[in-house]
Amino acid sequence: MDGIIGEYREPTDAGPRVTLVFYPGAFPVKWNQCSVAADFFAEYFADVGASGLVEEAERRDFVGSVGYVLNELIENAVKFCAGGTVVIDAGVEAGEFVVVVSNQIVGAAVDSLRIKFAELLDGDPAELLMQRVEENAANPELTTSGLGFLTMLSDYKARLGWRFDPAPGNPDNALLKTTARLQVKSP
Description:
Strands 1-5-6-4-3-2 form a six-stranded antiparallel β-sheet, covered by helices on one side. The termini are far apart. The chain is of the alpha+beta class. The protein has helices spanning 31-47, 56-79, 110-122, 125-138, 147-155; strands at residues 3-6, 17-22, 86-93, 96-106, 159-166, 173-183.
């Protein structure tokens, strides 16, 4: 059940770092809470000195990019959480924003997710994005299109990775850790 797909990397203590834990079993996590959490991280890391953002346009781009990417990751984690917590761990280091969002998923979903994630990384993100948009238009009932991940790859140049581990204390589930890395400033 364990393994890594893509460019998996966790934040280190080399720069500013924030961790937030949702306990979905203790209270219902709503969609607007995902965007509030994403906005908090984006604004916080835009303002810490390690981000190096001095121009207002750079700051706006960073906040928009981080906000979008984090919102997608948090929404996916909350939507597909099969018990346990949803953990968001993020930091800025060496000119890069690094985030890992962790949640438990049903163990039976691991194999299909591995295939889906590999397909996302193996193809051209822009072409796959257009293909998925057309598929969604033809079949509005689709619920696992991957549009969020494809948008992260295509429009935001995020580097994505996934790690599967056994879920602590729950042999029927897997712990999915999704990482995204974004360059803080354009080269």
